[in-house]
Design brief:
Length: 141
């Protein structure tokens, strides 16, 4: 018995088959444009900054330069000023850690736990639950 091929995906509203080859073309083009954009600012950043991770201070040479990445401080990959003010060079590990911290921050905001944005200080509390504790602990005379 020949294997059964799944039906092509269908549009949610119209029910017509979706032309996945067109979708594949759009995705491939978007990836190509993103790669070209990344190559441009990466090359600029490597010319502007020393080849050192901005977090762990690991130094890089031509032999391991592929492990040094460009991090966008504001997380906007389209914000690429020519002076490099939105970039910092990070090793793969520190870059992953930075994005993980950002994701955790966004999750905390979504859960209503608040917290400071990256680079900002968290608000301090003003409530002092133990302010009068010493008076309560004094023995009555």
């Amino acid at each position: 018995m020949a294997p059964k091929h799944p039906d092509p995906p269908r549009h949610g509203r119209t029910g017509r088959p979706i032309d996945s080859s067109r979708l594949d073309e759009v995705v491939a083009r978007a990836r190509q444009v993103a790669d070209e954009r990344a190559a441009g600012y990466r090359e600029q950043a490597l010319k502007l900054y020393p080849w050192v991770c901005g977090r762990c201070a690991r130094e890089f040479t031509h032999a391991n330069l592929r492990e040094l990445t460009v991090h966008h401080k504001d997380m906007d990959h389209d914000n690429n000023p020519p002076d490099g003010s939105n970039w910092e060079l990070l090793c793969l590990y520190c870059h992953d850690n930075e994005h993980q911290r950002h994701e955790e921050h966004l999750a905390a905001l979504a859960a209503g736990r608040g917290g400071a944005r990256p680079g900002e200080r968290a608000a301090t509390t003003t409530h002092r639950p133990f302010a009068d504790l010493s008076a309560l602990l004094k023995k009555p005379e």
